[in-house]
Design brief:
14 helices, 15 strands, binds pyridoxal-5'-phosphate, Aspartate Aminotransferase, domain 1, Aspartate Aminotransferase, domain 2, about 400 residues, about 15% strand, 7-stranded mixed β-sheet
Amino acid sequence: MSYDVATLRAHFPSLTSGIAHFDGPGGTQTPREVGAAVAATLTGPLSNRGTGGLSERNADAAVAAFRAAYADFLGVPAEGVVHGRSATALTYDVSRALAKRWAPGDEIVVSRLDHDANVRPWTQAAEAVGATVRWIDFDPATSEVDPASVAAAITPRTRLVAVTAASNLLGTKPPVRAIADAAHAVGALVYVDGVHYAAHEFVDVPALGADLFVCSPYKFLGPHCGVLGAAPAVLEEIRPDKLLPSTDAVPERFEFGTLPYEILAGATAAVDFLAGIAPGGATSRRDRLATAFAAIDVHETRLRAVLEGGLAALPVVVHSRAAERTPTLLLSLPGRRAWDAYVFLAGREILAPAGSFYAYEPFRRLALDDPHGLRLGLAPYTDESDVERVLTGLRDFFS
Ligand SMILES: Cc1ncc(COP(=O)(O)O)c(C=O)c1O
């Protein structure tokens, strides 16, 4: 499958800055088409939703297009697509609504591999109603989820299992389907954080076994917002607080206040842009997304191998070791500070942030000597020269 990264890069005005971006797991750069869709929607005739005038119809059309785009992106019905300000905000909203049905004795399962956005909303909601929290663990030596901890954490009292589809710290893709099957066997709901996963993998929410799946378009070339996908029947069962005049219909029930139509248009444009990466042949947008993500995977996996090959000759520890993982590498630098490497590289216009990246639990579990790790994340627009630059930069840092 051919993948023309130079042609792709020409769509990103920001890449002319000269910065080599390894900060994709924190947020990607944006193609011109996405920015144009935001601007055209915001500056075009635009009112509140309605059917009266063109400006009302434009708002309505932006919402319908967004739901159709994320139905294709996630593999759920359009009526199961919810917009949110961020994945964090969506998860807090869902956790508070679900917790109304929990009681002392109920158990909630979270994982040590997860970003805090898929941990604290659940542990805090559990605490508020006196439910018990159980943990799925991972092995810091392999960065793989510990299957014994899955078996121990899920019990007949489990009401919800919250797990990531890919770690934003280590790249590990845990066996979500197996975890979901274990959860469903005891009647629990499965809430999957797909924020990092959706930037690298073709998403199929039913195949993952996720009852609710959250992602963030700004991690895959879109604007800053969050998207929740679920079967509409799952959403029907959840009753968030709402204003009296606002609709009780699904999915609008979960969307508070006036929607940011321009952001929805940009998020739709990101899906269309990704689908457009597919070499010809596939017909439906969902099929083109599948083909595009396969091509992105080949590209990113090849560059990951080049990067890992170069890192092997450097005095760094690569903590990303799971058999199934995204092209996101967490490094520690024995005897040196990750923060100093970040600053050194930034001085050369190479952006590889140091931190724990809100992955509070996994970062603590790794028990590094350094308060930060150095994260190198590949994105669809990363090219070989970016990889050469970061390897040269790190060599010079150590010399
Ligand atoms: C894996 C993961 N989950 C959740 C989040 C939070 O996403 P948002 O910024 O949309 O709340 C992030 C952000 O970095 C993430 O990487």
